[in-house]
Amino acid sequence: MGIYKVFDLKNYSFLYSISDKNVQEIKISPGIMLLIFQRTPGYVPLKILSIEDGTVLKSFNHLLHRNKKVDFIEQFNEKLLVKQENENLQILDVRNSEL
User: Fold this and answer.
1) What is the pLDDT at residue 23?
2) With respect to CATH, is domain 3-93 assigned 2.60.40?
3) Which residue ranges of the chain lie beneath pLDDT 70?
4) How far, in Å, CA of 9 to CA of 69, rounded?
5) Residue 83 has what pLDDT?
6) 46-51 — which CB contacts under 8 Å span 24+ positions?
7) Record's InterPro entries (predicted)?
8) How far apart are CA 17 and CA 67, in angstroms?
9) How confident is the model at residue 16, as a pLDDT?
């Protein structure tokens, strides 16, 4: 099981930990953290957390093309960039889930 510990970079004090064996990747943007979980055949589960205290701001499933490899999932401020093999780049606004 993966345990991720978050520290305050000002004084290196421990803030909180995230323990979930299904977390595949973590992306950081100003003020928010994106947790990318293991994908299922049709979607990838995602969670957006507040960096300050770890509260879940949003939890959603991003639909994927079933038989296509995911080239990358990147977070850029409040935009999520998702690219799958031989597909157009998807840019998702994470605040309202609009493409």
Assistant:
1) 93
2) no
3) 1, 97-99
4) 36
5) 93
6) 46/80, 48/94, 49/18, 51/6
7) DUF7899
8) 34
9) 94
Give the distance, in angstroms, between the CA of residue 57 and the centroid of all CA atoms in the same chain: 11
Written as six digits, the tokens of 63 are: 């639909």
Biggest alpha carbon–alpha carbon distance for the chain: 46
Kindly report the pTM of this predicted structure.
Answer: 0.82
Q: Are strands 79-84 and 90-93 parallel, antiparallel or unpaired?
A: antiparallel
Q: What angle do CA 77, 3, 30 make, to 5 degrees?
A: 15
Q: What is the pLDDT of residue 66?
A: 83
* Cα three-residue angle 24-98-23, rounded to 5 degrees: 10
Residues 6+ apart with CB under 8 A from 30: 77
